[in-house]
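Translation initiation factor IF-2 structure dump, as promised
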Amino acid sequence: DALAMPDTEIVKTLFMKGIAVSITQSLDTSTVIMVAEELEVLVDTPEPEAEARKVTEMLDIEDMENLHLRPPVVTIMGHVDHGKTTLLDSIRKSKVASGEAGGITQHIGAYHVDIEHNEKEQQIVFLDTPGHEAFTAMRARGARVTDIAILVVAADDGVRPQTIEAIKHAQAAEVPIIVAINKIDKEAAQPDRVKQELMQYGLTSEEWGGDTIMVPVSAIKGENLDTLLEMIVLVSEVEDLQANPERSAKGTVIEAHLDKAKGAVATLLIQNGTLHVGDILVAGSVFGKVRAMVDDRGERVDIASPSFAVEVLGLNDVPFAGDDFEVFTNEKEARLLANERAEVIRQSRLMQGGRVTLTSISAQAQEGELKELNLILKADVQGSVEAILGSLKQIPQNEIHIRMLLSAPGEITQTDIDLAAASGAVIIGFNTTFASGARQAADEAGVDVREYNIIYKLLEDIQDALEGLLEPEL
Ligand code: GDP
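structure tokens r here:
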């Protein structure tokens, strides 16, 4: 777009220079400069460090001169009953309520705590929808809202299926994990066993020579929570999280509902810029002017800065959690964009276009455009999982790499669907069924679920897909 040159021309230009690229490929900086020079266009290159920053999706080149540290946004994940809710509550109580006049807090989907670190006041923002359902659902919508994941594992119970799921989800999103080994007050607590088990999933504790921070805590007694918070700040320093508070705001909707009295209410997480009362914004396909903002402590505020979440009134409809939002200076332009998006959503619902299926993968392989095949495998028993994984390894993977995001015995669940949608993966079910509601979810999300009960047929289809030979089913 910047060169005002069709992409086929770029491919041709490079081809003439002996560089073969496909249309969907990314070019490195020196190649980009080379193409631009042909057209006498000057290329401005930001510092490589800034370029490599993980959150670049929310940062523009203009922001690079005005970057300031921002607080980390943290999600708590883990198996049911391991203490996610208790941990969120204890942290909130220990850090918010005590110092607050009256201690009135309000659930808006996120809260922040103030902690003292290196004699400086530091903030941490917690998304307080525990469980990874919300996290994965947001990722399925393309939103990256979490900087750090806290994985809660009960010391008396160890690694369980949802623990493993949470690890896979955080790893797939490339979010750093801090482990909170919880319930250490219990007699049956075996923190070392937890550490041992986690090693199988690529998480080795620092004390054992690995690089994963693991903090033993008791959420119920409030024990060691300060250490946990301290570790969050340390990891966030390493991550070097930045944003440009001087610009207009953009970010993600983390919760939204319709209130009878107030109308559409949405909690917005500010990921870049500063949001002001009176700002005009588009959230997903919804348009509005910020009439009022309330923070997590129930106070009316006029501005919200990077990493903070505020509840916003004034939208013309209820957006979806995971929708992105952005502030506009021109009201007409904003309204137009919201309407256009609503139309696009309507159209794509009609067409279900762009979905990843094993046959579309095969077509890509045929075109030589496929690099990676993301799979999720669910099978009846662990023995089948291992047998299939073993056989998949035998398939020659010269150009294309099979990436197994998750493999486990059990039914195909909603979270599998969410993970597949978020990662463009195909789900393989072997001798298994759908959990209730999951089949419909797969249809709605356009996720391809292939069911098999004969291993060789499964392997044959995957091999065919990788070789670009899989025929579409009629
Ligand atoms: P969640 O499903 O992960 O949100 O788990 P909850 O926070 O609801 O906790 C499940 C149960 O474990 C509750 O009965 C809690 O009281 C209990 N629990 C949570 N943390 C601790 C802890 O540190 N020690 C003990 N003894 N019990 C805990």
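The longest strand covers residues 250-259.
lmk if u need the other ones
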